[in-house]
Amino acid sequence: MPTETELRTLLTIGEPSRTGDDPRLAGLSDLARQMGDVPPDKDAPVREVLARMGDNWSALILKVLATGTYRHATLKRVIAALSAERDISQRMLTLRLRALERDGFVARREHDTVPPRVDYALTDLGRGLAGELDRVIRWIEANSAEVEAARARFGE
Q: Which SUPFAM superfamilies match (predicted)?
């Protein structure tokens, strides 16, 4: 991780008019210290889970599974009905479910029946993440007018 001196140098490159203490330095030093406390391989879940929640399907899959247990085909139909993208391929749903299962958010249960049956449900960890996702969604909803205004100013 960069030292405070290295951070100070990074902050002044291209900004020679800055002199004295930079108010950003304290926050960056704290961030560098936090990141340095966690080995890079341990940091991977943070990046990966955030990226997964930002993909087209995983957050919606979590939100649907938060309502109960689903078989693959039923989950696919429900997601297609709820999604702005309308349809998720069987392969994509399988890939997302496997990734969520790998991270401990989803449990896959096979039943000894003929024909074979598999269903998916959230784990305790998955329910916790779905609850946090609810908080993020509420924040976005509460601030959506400001986001729209910023987009309008930007020209979108």
A: Winged helix' DNA-binding domain (SSF46785)
